[in-house]
């Protein structure tokens, strides 16, 4: 029991603003330009005023010619509005060596060893609860960006000589897609001459879009103009298509969304209900037996591939970003000169963005310009073969052999939405002796408080433990009012910034897997910190950080003496197949 209690002010959303130099006159100037000029301040609640969002969720950045603003592949946490000057979006052809990406800075063995002696003897000790007023809360997706020297392209004309790029002018917005979907940047953007940009962290962008229809339409138009072609080029079938034909494909492509962006809010009830009814209730993108109408490209999210089995549906596979649906049927329809029926159904799991390319466009602008060998390879890559007990997904092959995952295990992962996990903790219960060495290693690494629970959902001898999975779609970030939880910009690890966490429990309540814990914090004398206004304990969110600052990686996995525990990307069926069939 603690010997005493201490009081402190509970942290608030804007205790630490995004920018440290946003004055009232700066906000006044922003309100005189689009899209803010057309916004009705009366539509914003008193607790979240338009001026407050602009002053606390934005910052003005100045860039010299050639300065890199965002880099392709980095995880985004903010959008950018061009206030003055121009920005150039490099779509393809930029050498990755010029991007100046820093290697991961991991401490050496001696530093890691010394850290063990610095750990407090008490759990969850905080030297302070609220942030100092002279600190700036950088978006947690781009940690320490302000402290780093900006990277410049020294010879811009030469560097851009063999690239494809577009120029954005005053009033245009970019980076919003990566910010809102918590996904990697799809292109590199650099300053084209001296430029002034307004950076809007995604919490502020979300609040602005909720109350401004014009901003939403503006962003959707910019996506079609600036990003659609990038996504089409990422598809192997279209990667070498002549520009004029790719342009025709882009003009005819239909952008669709299925499901709910806030899918986690209803996940618990759907996962605990009848599986057959849950499948039928999922938003239908394409139905088995219907006429093939073209190709579906999954842009983000997950979709269930299934076919009728008895009186219900059997899961065949799940498709994620970059995968396609209907290619084999589209090719057959072209060869037979008549539509063929779809072999499987495609349903949205949560929230899914897809691009639909009509069959007529494929036959006119794609198939005639792709070799028969490439068509055959593409069809084979995305083929699915089903037997009585398992399905083989050719695109996740191991050493040339098809990945084999038993259908019951696959359906278990899909039903519980574990496919979302990029670093899920799997435990082989046949090998696990319950020695708890993994728990002790985690506690020793995290100030005497383990960041996971060695229990979880089971399928046969495989258990998915309650540990942060660092999801493809980390919905825990959606409601965080301060941006305290976010991705590391290069590794994608989901982390919590303890300085800006206000203990609101939104992330813990949003996590569909119950992998975030709220803990009482203490000072160094073992006194629980009490909110001076409510007289209740102040809590902070804690979760697995994948031991990001350890050179060896996750301590739990390395401490297991029986090779019973592994951190794994459950979106990689090949890796999963290798582990379960070892």
Features:
582 residues, alpha+beta, Jelly Rolls, Alpha-Beta Plaits, 3 domains, 6-stranded antiparallel β-sheet, 4-stranded antiparallel β-sheet, 26% helix
Question: What's a concise summary of this model?
Answer:
With 582 residues, this protein is of the alpha+beta class. The protein has 19 helices and 27 strands.
The percent of residues in helical segments reads 25-40%
- Could you name the ranges where pLDDT drops below 50 across 5 or more consecutive residues? 130-161, 385-402
CA distance, first residue to last residue:
47 Å
**Fourth-tier CATH superfamily name of the largest domain:** Jelly Rolls
Your description of this structure?
- This protein folds into 3 domains: 16-232, Jelly Rolls; 239-398, Jelly Rolls; 407-580, Alpha-Beta Plaits.
- The two termini are 47 Å apart.
- The protein has 19 helices and 27 strands.
- The longest helix is centred in the middle third of the chain and has 14 residues, at 213-226.
- Strands 10, 11, 12, 13, 14 and 15 form a 6-stranded antiparallel sheet that branches.
- Helices cover 26% and strands 26% of the residues.
- With 582 residues, the protein is α+β, with helices and mostly antiparallel strands.
- Helix 9 (243-252) runs antiparallel to helix 13.
- A hairpin with a 3-residue loop joins strand 16 (384-386) and strand 17 (390-398).
SSE layout and pairings?
Elements lengths: L4 E4 L15 H7 L19 H7 L1 E6 L4 E3 L7 E7 L2 E6 L16 H10 L37 H4 L4 E5 L4 E2 L1 H6 L6 E4 L3 E7 H9 L2 H14 L1 H6 L9 H10 L1 E6 L7 H5 L3 H7 L2 E3 L7 E16 L2 E8 L4 E2 L1 H10 L8 E14 H8 L5 H10 L2 E3 L3 E9 L2 E6 H9 L8 E5 L8 H9 L7 E7 L2 E5 L18 E3 L6 E3 L9 H5 L6 E4 L7 E4 L7 E4 L12 H5 L5 E4 L4 H8 L2
Parallel strand pairs: 1-25
Antiparallel strand pairs: 2-9, 3-8, 4-7, 4-9, 5-6, 5-8, 10-15, 11-15, 12-13, 12-14, 12-15, 16-17, 17-18, 19-21, 19-27, 20-21, 22-23, 24-26
Helix pairs in contact: 9-13
């Amino acid at each position: 029991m603690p010997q005493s209690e201490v009081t402190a002010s509970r942290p608030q959303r804007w205790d630490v603003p995004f920018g440290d130099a946003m004055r009232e006159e700066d906000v006044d100037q922003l309100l005189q330009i689009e899209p803010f000029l057309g916004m009705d301040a009366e539509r914003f609640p008193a607790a979240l005023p338009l001026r407050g969002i602009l002053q606390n969720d934005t910052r003005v950045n100045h860039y010299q010619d050639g300065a890199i603003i965002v880099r392709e592949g980095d995880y985004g946490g903010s959008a950018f509005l061009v206030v003055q000057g121009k920005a150039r979006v490099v779509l393809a052809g930029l050498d990755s060596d010029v991007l100046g990406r820093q290697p991961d800075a991991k401490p050496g063995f001696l530093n890691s060893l010394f850290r063990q002696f610095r750990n407090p003897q008490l759990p969850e000790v905080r030297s302070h609860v609220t942030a100092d007023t002279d600190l700036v809360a950088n978006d947690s997706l781009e940690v320490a960006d302000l402290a780093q020297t900006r990277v410049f392209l020294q010879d811009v004309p030469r560097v851009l000589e063999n690239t494809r790029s577009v120029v954005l002018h005053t009033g245009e917005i970019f980076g919003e897609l990566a910010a809102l979907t918590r996904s990697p940047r799809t292109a590199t953007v650099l300053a084209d001459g001296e430029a002034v940009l307004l950076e809007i962290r995604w919490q502020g962008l979300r609040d602005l879009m909720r109350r401004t229809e014009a901003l939403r339409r503006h962003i959707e138009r910019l996506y079609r103009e600036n990003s659609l072609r990038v996504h089409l080029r990422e598809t192997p079938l279209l990667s070498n298509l002549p520009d004029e034909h790719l342009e025709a494909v882009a003009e005819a492509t239909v952008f669709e969304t299925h499901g709910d962006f806030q899918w986690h809010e209803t996940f618990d009830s759907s996962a605990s209900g009848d599986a057959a009814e849950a499948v039928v209730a999922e938003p239908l993108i394409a139905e088995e037996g219907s006429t093939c109408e073209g190709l579906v490209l999954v842009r983000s999210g997950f979709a269930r591939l299934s076919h009728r089995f008895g009186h219900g549906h059997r899961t065949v596979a799940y498709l994620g970003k970059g995968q396609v649906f209907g290619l084999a049927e589209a090719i057959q329809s072209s060869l037979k000169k008549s539509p063929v029926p779809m072999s499987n159904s495609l349903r949205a799991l949560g929230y899914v963005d897809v691009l639909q390319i009509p069959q007529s466009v494929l036959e006119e602008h794609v198939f005639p310009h792709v070799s028969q060998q490439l068509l055959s390879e593409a069809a084979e890559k995305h083929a699915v073969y089903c037997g009585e007990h398992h399905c083989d997904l050719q695109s996740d092959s191991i050493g040339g052999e098809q990945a084999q995952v038993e259908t019951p295990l696959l359906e278990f992962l899909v039903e519980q939405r574990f496919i979302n996990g990029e670093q899920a903790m799997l435990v082989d219960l046949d090998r696990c002796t319950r020695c708890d060495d993994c728990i002790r290693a985690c506690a020793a690494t995290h100030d005497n408080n383990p960041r996971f629970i060695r229990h979880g959902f089971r399928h046969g001898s495989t258990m998915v433990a309650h540990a942060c999975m660092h999801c493809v779609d980390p919905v825990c970030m959606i409601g965080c009012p301060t941006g305290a939880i976010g991705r590391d910009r290069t590794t994608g690890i989901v982390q919590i910034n303890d300085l800006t966490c206000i203990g609101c429990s939104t992330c813990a309540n949003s996590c569909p897997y119950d992998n975030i814990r709220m803990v009482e914090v203490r000072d160094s004398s073992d006194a629980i910190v009490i909110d001076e206004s409510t007289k209740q304990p102040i809590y902070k969110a804690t979760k697995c950080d994948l031991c990001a600052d350890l050179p060896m990686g996750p301590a739990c996995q390395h401490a297991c003496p029986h090779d019973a525990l592994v951190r794994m990307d459950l979106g990689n069926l090949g890796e999963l197949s290798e582990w379960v069939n070892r």
